[in-house]
Amino acid sequence: MQVLSTIDETKELVKSWKKQGFIVGFVPTMGALHIGHLSLVNEARKVCDKVVVSIFVNPTQFGPNEDFDNYPRTFEQDKKACSENGVDLIFAPVAIEMYPEFSSNKKNLTKVVPPVEHVDKLCGKSREGHFDGVATVVLKLFNIVQPDKAFFGQKDAQQLIIIKKICKDLNVPVEVVGCPIIREESGLAYSSRNAYLNSEDKKKASSIYKVLKKIIKLYNSGCEDKHKIFKESLELLHEDFELEYIEAYDLDSFECQNRLNNNSFVAIAARLSGVRLIDNITMNLVKDL
Ligand code: AMP
């Protein structure tokens, strides 16, 4: 496994692979790798000859009051996990390599701006500018790595929908593959931010999945009214949680729904001990985002 921090070296290595006819898979991450990230690596390995993982805590997707400075950084562990899981290249740039102009003038940067209909909901409501930061860095990473396929978790549902939209609208020649949410035994979705939770909080945090499972149960028993379904299901959310949103959307149009159907997904965000957790579930469990 190679570890590179410069754009030029990364481009050159991938170019040499492409010349040899290799299919290149790409898994963008912010590091602090867990089993969820590694599941994306494994999906990539199944269908690609070479797998690139980027590790970059992207400053432009964090708001001024968010956890950029405290975000878990575990590079040595990440390297070990990547090498044990068959990664061929880690691209781990420093911020100045990605944004030579940014540190001196935050505004002096060309941005990818997803359509307002995609960002005025769910996480976009409370995280102003977040998806501009995500969209911009992902397109930059795609241009650097030039993968054939890129793998993203369905856990970040809105992010996945937005990245697919960008690739479609801007004719980006990368196939975006959505991969299932990987959960701890308790049902809590793996997340780098789980590292902020103590063991007591983790137990409480698993109640998010109980809510999502209850939603499926009520839907499968014939109830379609989201207000009714959410009210009853949210009784299972641990009382220490502060709910930010729970909403139902159509998987294809990404429009808000009042009545759930087989094409709906329900997304939730809630804070526990100051830690913001997100999760989601599709009504038709075999139909993915
Ligand atoms: P992050 O490092 O948080 O930016 O995440 C990098 C990628 O891993 C994103 O595509 C996430 O959706 C994905 N990911 C994070 N947690 C999980 C999980 N529990 N299951 C599957 N994919 C995940």
Task: Provide an overview of this structure.
With 289 residues, the protein is α/β, with parallel strands linked by helices. The protein contains eleven helices and nine strands. It has helices at 7-19, 35-47, 75-84, 95-98, 116-119, 122-126, 130-145, 157-169, 199-205, 207-220, 226-234, and strands at 2-4, 24-29, 50-55, 89-91, 149-153, 175-179, 242-250, 264-272, 275-282. The strands form two sheets. Strands 1-4-3-2-5-6 form a six-stranded parallel beta sheet, sandwiched between helices. A three-stranded antiparallel beta sheet has the order 7-8-9, with helices on one face. Helix 8 links the parallel strand 5 (149-153) and strand 6. Helix 7 packs across helix 8. The mean pLDDT is 95. The chain binds adenosine monophosphate. Adenosine monophosphate binds next to helix 2 and strand 5.
Topology readout:
Elements: E1 2-4, H1 7-19, E2 24-29, H2 35-47, E3 50-55, H3 75-84, E4 89-91, H4 95-98, H5 116-119, H6 122-126, H7 130-145, E5 149-153, H8 157-169, E6 175-179, H9 199-205, H10 207-220, H11 226-234, E7 242-250, E8 264-272, E9 275-282
Parallel strand pairs: 1-4, 2-3, 2-5, 3-4, 5-6
Antiparallel strand pairs: 7-8, 8-9
Helix pairs in contact: 7-8, 10-11
The structure holds adenosine monophosphate.
Adenosine monophosphate binds near residues 39, 40, 155, 181 and 189.
Sheet with the most strands?
A: 6 strands, parallel
Strand order of the largest sheet: 1-4-3-2-5-6
What binds here, in terms of ligands, is: adenosine monophosphate
Strand and helix order: EHEHEHEHHHHEHEHHHEEE
Q: Overall pLDDT, averaged?
A: 95
- Residue share in helices? 25-40%
- The number of strands is 9
- Report strand %: 15-25%
Give Rg in angstroms: 19 Å
